[in-house]
Amino acid sequence: MIKAIVTDIEGTTSSIDFVHQTLFPYAKAHLRSFLRAQARRPEVAVQVHAVAEAEGRQLTLEDAADVLERWIAEDRKATPLKALQGMIWAQGYAAGELEGHVYPDTPDYLRRWHAQGLGLYVYSSGSVEAQQLIFGHTAYGDLTPLFSGYFDTRIGGKREVASYRHIVAEIGLPAGEVLFLSDIGEELDAAREAGLATTQLLRDAQAKAFPQHPSARDFSEVRV
Ligand SMILES: CSCCC(=O)C(=O)COP(=O)(O)O
Ligand SMILES: [Mg+2]
C-alpha cells in the first residue's frame, strides 16, 4: 500500500528542455553579475567558499565564476552550484522572467494524490529553494501547498542507495510504502535497492527504458 510519493523534477514533473534550455542558461547569463553584487551575503559567500574547497585552491570571484560555468556545462550536480543557481533563479522568478514548467498532467495528478491522502515529496538535484520556486511559479498556480517536504543533494546523490534510506527515515514510513518517480534508471535502481517502489517516467519517445521498473508515459499511467 503506497502512502507517499517522492518525485524527481527534470524529466518527471517537468521537461528536460526547460531545465537545460531555460534555467541553466539563465543562471549562466546572470552568474557573474550576481556574484559581483551579492558575494558578501553570508549565504552566497559560504557557497563560493565551497566551490574553492571542491577545487582545492583559492579562487577570486572571477575564478569561481569560471569554475561554476564549467560545472554548468558539465551538468555537475554539485551542492554549491545548485544552491547558487537557486538564488539566481529566485531573482528571475521574482522579476517575472521565469515561469516554472510542469507537464499538464502534473498539477492534475499531484492534486488527486494529495486529495487521496498520499504524502507528496520532491527529490531533485536542484536545491530545495529551486524546487520550491519551480512549483511555486507554474502556469497552474502555486503547487507548493501540495508537498510535505523537499530533498536535495544535501541528503546525498540521486544514484546512491543511502540517499533513499535517509529520505524514507525522514518521511517516517517503511520504504515499501513509498513510491519513487523518476526518468533515470540508475536513480530508480538505487531507490529500489533501498526498498522503495519505483516507476519510470518515459515522457520522451527517445527516453532509455529500464524494463526492471514499471513505466508510465505520464502521471495518469502511474499506479499507486
Ligand atoms: C529544481 S529545477 C532545476 C533542477 C536542476 O537543477 C537539476 O539539475 C535537475 O535535477 P533533477 O534531479 O531534477 O534531474
Ligand atoms: Mg530526472
The level 1 CATH classification of the largest domain is: Alpha Beta
Shape: globular
Strand arrangement, major sheet: 3-2-1-4-5-6
Please report the number of helical segments.
8
**DSSP, total strands:** 6
Roughly what percent helix? 40-55%
SSE run: EHHHHHEHEHEHEE
Give your account of this protein's structure.
It is built from eight helices and six strands, in the order βαααααβαβαβαββ. With 224 residues, the protein is an alpha/beta fold. It has a six-stranded parallel sheet, with helices on both faces. The chain has two domains: 133 residues, Rossmann fold; 76 residues, Transcription Termination Factor Rho, Rna-binding Domain, Chain A, Domain 1 (Orthogonal Bundle). The mean pLDDT is 97. The termini are close together. Bound molecules: the ligand CSCCC(=O)C(=O)COP(=O)(O)O and magnesium ion. The site of the ligand CSCCC(=O)C(=O)COP(=O)(O)O has 14 residues, from helix 1 and helix 6. Magnesium ion binds next to loops.
